[in-house]
Amino acid sequence: MDAETLKAAAARAALDSVKSGMKLGIGSGSTAEHFVRVLAEKVAVGLDIIGVPTSSRTEALCRELSVPLTTLDETPRLDLVVDGADEIDPVMDLIKGGGGALLREKIVAAASERMIVIADESKLVDKLGRFPLPIEVNAFGLGATKVAIETAASRLGLSGEITLRMAGDGPFLTDGGHLILDASFGRIPATRRLAGELNAIPGVVEHGLFIGMADKAILAGKEGIREIDAKAEHTIKTELD
Ligand code: 5RP
């Protein structure tokens, strides 16, 4: 079974949580695109939902497939967001932003009552950090912001290469017109503290650590679909950090 088949299976399983009348956040990335496609099939046969896309790319796909859209200005509270992730740890903290949509994804997740993460099981890790952490930064003061990130990371005993994400000959630009620094820190023992340190740096717009935001993960593997619920474990995680 290839990765795309598994991603599509996770996306289809998430549909069980979508009910008529819901206001949805619609994630970004290849797994979320599978979700948009199965959602569009249901909409075509009468499912009544309205969605806020988390990227211009997801917005374009929703429009192409006639998924009804709204904005957080018109609809500031959502029932559920369904999104992918780059890494998921056992208490369902996440690294996101591999596709560069982390800022909108986090805004939409924060506006949603519940967050369901869909992925193939290769995304489940025992500790976050194998995947380089995407950090969205303002272009102004890039060098100073990079040094501030290195300094903050070193306070937590973290180091590693921090590279500017490129797209062809130029820097990758997010939907918000910002840059992305990918930080290869390796395993991150204190994710909450790192998130706080990064949030305190003025040039950092947002980072890809999604702490305590996901309620459920739907993971597809060769053995089938596995669902992990976050609630109980989040309490334990808070105590440990
Ligand atoms: C985009 C994201 C994606 O959800 C994440 O990169 C996972 O993507 P994929 O489903 O293609 O593996 O955070 O910013």
Can you walk through the features of this model?
The strands form 4 sheets. A 6-stranded mixed sheet has the order 2-1-3-6-14-15. A 4-stranded antiparallel sheet has the order 8-11-7-12. The chain has a 3-stranded antiparallel sheet with strand order 4-5-13, with helices on one face. The chain has 7 helices and 15 strands. With 241 residues, the protein is an alpha/beta fold. The chain has helices spanning 3-14, 30-44, 56-64, 102-110, 142-155, 191-199, 231-240, and strands spanning 23-26, 50-53, 78-83, 87-88, 94-95, 112-120, 133-137, 162-164, 166-167, 170-171, 179-183, 204-207, 209-210, 216-221, 224-229. A hairpin with a 2-residue loop joins strand 9 and strand 10. The chain is globular. Ribulose-5-phosphate binds at residues 27-32, 83-86, 96-102, 105.
Figure out the total of helices.
7
Shape: globular
* Regions with little confidence, pLDDT below 50 for 5+ residues: 233-241
The SSE order reads: HEHEHEEEHEEHEEEEHEEEEH
What is the strand arrangement across the widest sheet? 2-1-3-6-14-15
Distance between the termini: 37 Å
Which structural class should the secondary elements be placed in? Answer: alpha/beta
Residues in helices, as a percent range: 25-40%
State the total count of DSSP E strands.
15
Molecules bound to protein: ribulose-5-phosphate
Mean of all residue-level pLDDT scores: 95
Instruction: Specify the biggest β-sheet.
Output: 6 strands, mixed
Strand content bin: 25-35%
